[in-house]
Fold this protein.
Amino acid sequence: MWWQKLSSKSEKSESAQSANSAEDAVFDFARTLEELRERKEDIRPSDVVLFPEPLRSTLNFAIRIGRISLTEFADMMKLDTSQTRQLTDLLVARNLLRVSAFSNDKETFFESRLSAMTRPLGRPINDIWKKLDE
């Protein structure tokens, strides 16, 4: 599945990782972006551990804190704003993040979802409490 590809590609040796050039970093971004576009299912917070660095640590930070700004995301990922916007748009589309109501013209803020489940939950019918008491 998609996470197996991500985890197997991120399991390079330490020496191979330190030998990566700036071109490889752009390639990693492009590959990650492509793999996120290919997937159709939602991303759960537990899926984040399988992402390559620095995306993994950035998303772990966002999930633990509950929110992150576009600027913080770009700084932690060491990407420019347009690349960060592409990545966050995919994460919003895959229901890991949602755009916060606190966003404004100067800054976009994202809130992390604790679950990938996006269907609205209905209220239980009133008779359920009566049936449970019986």
Remarks:
- Residues 12-27 have pLDDT under 50 and may be disordered.
